[in-house]
UniProtKB/TrEMBL annotation:
Top-rank taxon, per record: Bacteria
Transmembrane segments: none
GTP-binding listed as a keyword: no
Domain Glutamine amidotransferase type-2: start-end pairs: 2-299
Protein name per the record: Glutamine amidotransferase family protein
Source organism per UniProt: Amphritea pacifica
Record key words, sorted: Glutamine amidotransferase, Transferase
SUPFAM superfamilies linked to this entry: N-terminal nucleophile aminohydrolases (Ntn hydrolases)
InterPro entries hit by this protein: GATase_2_dom (IPR017932), Ntn_hydrolases_N (IPR029055)
Cross-referenced Pfam families: GATase_6
């Protein structure tokens, strides 16, 4: 059992409050996922031609300044960075491919949690409330955010096994459910060049979407194909640079509820996670239909 929450702001005036609005939603999912928690927040975009990486090292005293200095000299590129607990966000004036190759070659012990122009992924083992405090979630600003609380059923409790999982540039996935064909799919996707860090079935779903998008699918097409190729029970929420998407499997046995006002669209595994949102009593509330793709996005860049 796991908990999923997402908040997409239609009203840009609320962007400075995104973290404060979202924190109680994530904490409300503690009973569904006390083992680990994480979230992907979108905002603070870098310009075209630059890339933002979320990096993590197990040592909180890791020397990020030295890595930034090395990146600046070796890549001959502007580098800005800031640290948040065991994570650092690097903004580099270069391409994603060059930046990621540099990190893998120079600091193989550093994990790349996300890459894009907007996304930052933050996740840890522990209670959602502690993780929200660790990263100072309530002070964060942005346009939209998706989060997950995990009760491990398929694999070990590790930071790597916690959600969200990056699925490509500015894309990530959170998943509640279990896939029955993940072992076979993992082997097929490995042959296609997809790399996996864990034995987690949710990472297979993320890898599947990454692969479909690499094959040229739109997000909509990739999700439509997932209904054919993924066996099991799932509710997915997918973060994109411009918004988020929600999809439930054809049987829809994993719970999900949506709420929409003029100011926001929110989703959660349980209604109680939405009750702290402003104006919720007047929101349009519904349960997403099975095998139906819901997408909320700003007009593309």
């Amino acid at each position: 059992m796991c908990g999923i929450v997402g908040l997409y702001l239609k009203n840009r005036a609320l962007e400075s409050q995104l973290g404060a609005l979202f924190e109680p939603m994530l904490i409300a999912m503690t009973d569904r996922g006390p083992d680990s928690a994480g979230f992907a927040i979108y905002g603070d975009e870098v310009a075209d031609g630059s890339i933002k990486l979320t990096l993590r090292h197990a040592d909180e005293n890791y020397d990020w300044a030295a890595l930034a200095e090395k990146a600046q000299s070796e890549l001959n590129a502007g580098v800005e960075w800031f640290k948040n607990s065991k994570v650092a966000v690097f903004k580099l004036q270069t391409s994603a491919a060059i930046a990621e190759a540099f990190v893998k070659a120079t600091a193989p012990e550093v994990l790349i949690l996300s890459a894009g122009q907007s996304i930052e992924i933050l996740k840890e083992v522990g209670l959602p409330e502690n993780i929200a405090d660790t990263f100072n979630l309530k002070e964060m600003k942005g346009s939209h955010i998706i989060g997950h609380t995990r009760m491990a059923t398929e694999s070990a409790v590790t930071m790597e096994g916690s959600h969200p999982f990056s699925t490509g540039m500015d894309l990530c996935l959170v998943h509640n459910g279990s896939l029955s064909n993940h072992n076979r799919l993992r082997e097929e996707l490995k042959r296609e060049g997809i790399v996996f860090e864990t034995e987690n079935d949710s990472e297979v779903a993320a890898g599947y979407l990454t692969w479909r998008l690499q094959q040229g699918d739109s997000l909509n097409e990739a999700l439509t194909n997932s209904l054919k190729d993924l066996d099991g029970f799932f509710t997915f929420t997918i973060g994109t640079r411009d918004g988020f998407a929600v999809l439930r499997d054809p049987i829809a046995c994993k719970p999900a509820v949506m709420a929409e006002t003029d100011d926001y669209v929110a989703m959660a595994s349980e209604y109680q996670a939405l009750t702290t949102l402003p104006g919720i009593e007047n929101a349009r509330i519904w349960e997403p239909e099975p095998a139906t793709i819901y997408v909320w996005e700003r007009s593309s860049h």
